[in-house]
Amino acid sequence: MIRNRATLTASPEHEVALDCIEAAVDAAAPDVATRSAISRAGETLTIEETTYDLGNYSDVVVVGGGKAAGGVTRALESILSDSLSGGHIIVKQAVDTETVRSSVGDHPLPSDRNVEATADILETVEEAGEDTLVLFVLTGGASALLSAPAGDLTLDDLQTTTDRLLSGGVPIAEINAVRKHLSDLKGGQIARRAAPATVAGLLLSDVVGNDLSTIGSGPSVPDETTYADALDVFDRYDLTPPPAVQEHLEAGRDGEIPETPFPDDPAFDRVTNYLVGDNATALDAAAAVAQDAGYEPLMLTSRLRGEAREVAKPLVAIAEEATATGTPVEPPAVLLAGGETTVTVTGDGGQGGPNQEFVLSGALAHDGDAVIAAVDTDGEDGSSDVAGAIADGTVVDDRERAREALLANDAGSYLSDIGATIKTGPTGTNVNDVAVIVVPDTDE
Q1: Among 253, 278, 303, where does a domain finish?
Q2: Cα 406 → chain centroid
Q3: Which CATH number belongs to the domain containing residue 195 in this structure?
Q4: Could you tell me if 16 and 62 lie in one domain?
Q5: Domain range holding 69?
Q6: Which of 197, 193, 218, 225 lies closest to 273 in space, CA to CA?
Q7: What is the sign of the dihedral through the CA atoms of 8, 14, 20 and 24?
Q8: Which residues pair with 162 in a beta bridge?
Q9: Which residues contact 299 (CB under 8 A, 6 or more apart)?
Q10: What's the confidence (pLDDT) of residue 349?
């Protein structure tokens, strides 16, 4: 999986860190997650603890989108076979599906082809009747890939807004609160359009804490945020939306545009959402690999969030404490954390992403021999073409240059120059970031 692994294995600790990363990404593979949650016996489709009698439906369709939607859909095609009528998904990388149409879209900024494919999905959903079972697949990346500008908004309005929110270091839940109110699909609106069909939402989480209404901006989930909440996001982070977006949100706040459906909306009477995989799934697999290698795993959290360069410091401090006192874990050990850190861009737009900033900041702050690695499980850290990085204090030889790179949001350039970036290419899944800190045996 790690294409440049041979150049990264500088020590046994590096080897363990890379093994943990590969295991984490493998465990979050969409086909694995789907088959663990969904099975079929005859005409009975079982999703977790719920059963669906396929004989009650004249049509079974799969719609949705996200970076891992292709893998989920391929698994569904295999499980359902000739019971599947068709459907349409939007993915970032081309995928070979048989019955369900797949379209390639753009991420992280929406594009014309995203809008065109989403319009077809909405048409498919609106044609669903009472005897239709809609399997709605939603994974990380869907907020951009599923794009349906609301009202008089344009694609350019969505692109500009998304870019400003991402560059402003806004957490994903608040970004999605805005997206829901600029869309004809998000914030429970696909459920409203699908009624009276039966809808089973199949969600692979890329959201810290697994709030279903935040994953992909919650098209099949009730929305408790409002137009006023969306406006508050811009005020809170001192950002200015495009004029059309400002006008649209103010019109919604003033009651001129209907709100997204709340939990008591009848649109959800025949909708059930299922979480088929998340960050904890990846961390559990990494912990098992660490233990097999003779290291004591300690899972710190799957809810990591905050500014990447700052979040790294307390984690490496825990590694230092472990080395010095054997607390909270006795070395050799592997500290594991996952979640979604952010980067507030203050430089001139250098290379990198949250995981690369995490690793460089951690290596600069660390006073010890631990190996620090972090990746985005989708294989693309921020807007870069690498998954993340791996480093220890010894490879950061020019500390002044490293600090300058970090301050300029150019961690990627420095880490690339010293051969510390991790390259996987697109992995086909997305369950947030995984950080691994390997603390060597103090007796060695």
Answers
A1: 278
A2: 24
A3: 3.40.50.10180
A4: no
A5: 27-278
A6: 218
A7: negative
A8: none
A9: 283, 284, 287, 336, 337
A10: 67
Type of residue at 121: I
Number of domains in the chain: 2
**pTM of this structure:** 0.83
* Residue 444 included in any domain: no
Q: What is the CATH number of the domain that holds 337?
A: 3.40.1480.10
Model pLDDT, residue 441: 94
Strand partners of residue 335: 298, 437
Buried b (16+ CB within 10 A) or exposed e, 202-224: bbbbbbbebebbbbbbbbbbbbe
Q: Measured between alpha carbons, how far is 382 from 100 in angstroms, rounded to an integer?
A: 29
Structure tokens that stand for 348 in this block: 């001139």
Q: What is the pLDDT of residue 442?
A: 82
From CA 37, how far away is CA 405, in angstroms rounded? 44
Which regions of the chain are under pLDDT 70?
349, 444
The burial of 93, by beta-carbon neighbours within 10 Å (0-12 exposed, 13-18 middle, 19 or more buried), is given as middle
**Do 355 and 408 sit in the same domain of this protein?**
yes
* CA-based nearest residue to 37, from 220, 205, 274: 274
Both tokens of residue 66? Answer: 């996200």
Token couple for 56:
């009650």
